[in-house]
Specification:
Elements (H helix, E strand, L loop, with lengths): L28 E2 L5 E2 L11 H19 L6 H8 L3 H29 L1 H17 L7 H12 L4 H12 L2 H36 L4 H8 L1 H17 L8 H6 L8 H9 L2 H11 L2 H19 L3 H13 L4 H16 L1 H23 L4 H29 L4 H25 L2 H16 L20 H8 L13 H6 L1
Antiparallel strand pairs: 1-2
Helix pairs in contact: 1-4, 1-6, 1-7, 1-9, 3-4, 3-5, 3-6, 3-11, 3-18, 4-5, 4-6, 4-9, 6-7, 6-18, 7-8, 7-14, 7-15, 7-17, 11-18, 12-17, 12-18, 13-14, 13-17, 13-18, 14-17, 15-16, 15-17, 16-17, 16-19, 17-18
């Protein structure tokens, strides 16, 4: 695709340079939502909207890949370091714990600086401990290295904020779900690439299992570093360009990161969604750490086979999270926020029921079948959650996205502690019950101007927006046919 600096405004009455636009948009945009796109064209790579879309999901995909690159080889790591099950689970907890703090920080920083630079910097930083994985000699060393690799998981906040910054609220559920889901797909791909492909390939070249796991992590580390550098150079912070340039031109006010965080943190809805996200994304993170080892221990499979089956959980991200967000948008078009909240609860109820079923299954074929259904609704609930996020408090979207994202990692830490201290069966049952309880919290979500699950009324503007009878006073600007062909 060709990036085209804007030379002439499409609207003769509008001075394009004055309003800050630097590109001829390849998508329809809403000027009332800061030129966010009203549609998604997956086959386009044009700046600014679709370029940011693809950079967002790919960066998070790589971050997720390096985050769990060691997970399918943990049994071999345990044998090399002579550590037990409890210590392996401690390392799993460390890998998700560090990200909690970073997600809280990254939210308000996104509001202030945008997602692009933060995404690139954290991806490059996380690639360094990934490359050093092979130097680990003890359980303590494993805890430390996985803690610092896990900081890369905080790129989720930038991933979601970037999409929200580029697309209107009416399609935000789909956009956020696609970039988040395709990014989360890295958790499934890393299971099969690292555990079933590269690890045995390195052993085929004559390396021992100990030498293979110590060497193999260098490959994803290099890819992560290169990705971090590249996305900072080829993409934009928002539809009108980069934050630094807009601030220099006086087209964007300075934002206080502290004020943004306080505003987001003082909203009760943020914390209700924090808990619900802990019961979907937290479950996914737990499964990324546990699945391969669970199939090895319970069904006596080899690393390669167990990793291939465990990867199914992550592979569902190819479509499940996107469908969850898309369904949330469709429910919104039929019933507004009430529709989004009902869909959220339905996803969580089915997810929780599947966890309880999975915990008592002793047949391998049935376990795989349940895993597919279970995974699909875990990720649909994630997509549904971030279909709600842009509505909570739009000026503090970055901070709110960060806090709720941290809920996912908090859930993973809590569930990880259960798996560390209890049998897998009991831990799964506690996790399932927790998810079912979290589904009821949708009843208490009450967003200003929107109907809740059982009460309230939409404001006239909100009702007109979700019914499609108005655009909130804005005008949708379509691209010229010539621009669309060239983009």
């Amino acid at each position: 695709s060709e990036d085209k600096p804007l030379a002439v405004s499409k609207n003769p009455d509008d001075d394009a340079q004055k309003d800050g636009r630097i590109y001829e948009y390849a998508l329809r945009v809403d000027p009332n939502q800061d030129d966010r796109a009203c549609e998604i064209n997956l086959c386009s790579f044009a700046r600014p909207h679709m370029r940011a879309f693809h950079c967002s999901w790919w960066s998070f995909f790589i971050a997720f890949f390096i985050w769990f690159a060691i997970a399918p080889m943990l049994n071999d790591v345990g044998e090399s370091l002579q550590i037990d099950r409890t210590q392996i689970w401690t390392s799993n907890i460390c890998s998700v714990a560090g990200t909690i703090f970073m997600r809280f920080i990254n939210g308000p920083l996104c509001d202030k600086f945008g997602a692009r630079i933060l995404m690139g910097i954290i991806l490059m930083c996380a690639s360094i401990p990934t490359a050093l994985t092979g130097l680990v000699q003890s359980a303590t060393g494993l805890y430390i290295i996985r803690f610092f690799i896990g900081l890369g998981g905080s790129t989720f906040v930038m991933c979601q904020f970037w999409a929200t910054r580029m697309f209107t609220k009416e399609v935000a559920g789909t956009a956020n779900a696609l970039v988040g889901g395709w990014g989360n797909l890295g958790g499934g791909v890393t299971q099969i690439v690292m555990g079933s492909a590269l690890f045995p390939l390195f052993k085929a070249f004559g390396l021992t299992a100990d030498q293979a796991w110590r060497s193999v992590c260098v490959i994803p580390a290099v890819v992560a570093f290169v990705t971090g550098v590249t996305i900072m150079k080829i993409s934009d912070d928002c539809p009108k360009g980069n934050y630094s340039d807009l601030k220099k031109k006086g087209l964007m006010p300075e934002i206080s990161a502290g004020s943004s965080f306080r505003q987001g943190a003082c909203n009760l809805n943020t914390w209700l969604l924090f808990i619900q996200y802990g019961c979907c994304f937290g479950v996914e993170l737990t499964m990324n750490n546990a699945a391969s080892k669970y199939f090895q221990d319970v069904f006596l499979l080899e690393t390669e086979s167990a990793s291939a089956i465990a990867s199914i959980f992550g592979w569902m991200n190819l479509f499940a999270r996107g469908l969850g967000g898309f369904a949330s948008d469709k429910c919104n078009s039929k019933a507004g926020m009430r529709g989004r909240l009902w869909w959220q609860s339905i996803c969580l109820v089915i997810e929780g029921a599947c966890v309880l079923w999975f915990s008592v299954t002793t047949n391998l074929g049935l376990a795989i079948f349940i895993l597919v259904i279970f995974s699909s609704f875990v990720q649909a609930a994630e997509g549904s959650t971030y279909g709600i996020v842009p509505y909570v408090d739009p000026p503090s979207t970055g901070s709110i996205a960060g806090i709720i994202g941290a809920g996912g990692n908090t859930g993973a830490v809590v569930f990880g502690l259960f798996f560390r201290q209890l049998t897998d069966k009991v831990a799964f049952q506690i996790m399932g019950i927790s998810i079912l309880v979290s589904a009821t919290l949708s009843v208490f979500v009450c967003i200003r101007g929107h109907r809740s699950v059982f009460g309230g009324e939409d404001s006239p503007a909100i009702e007109a927006a979700w019914k499609g009878t108005g655009t909130g006073g804005g005008v949708i600007i379509p691209p010229d046919d010539k621009d669309e062909d060239e983009a």
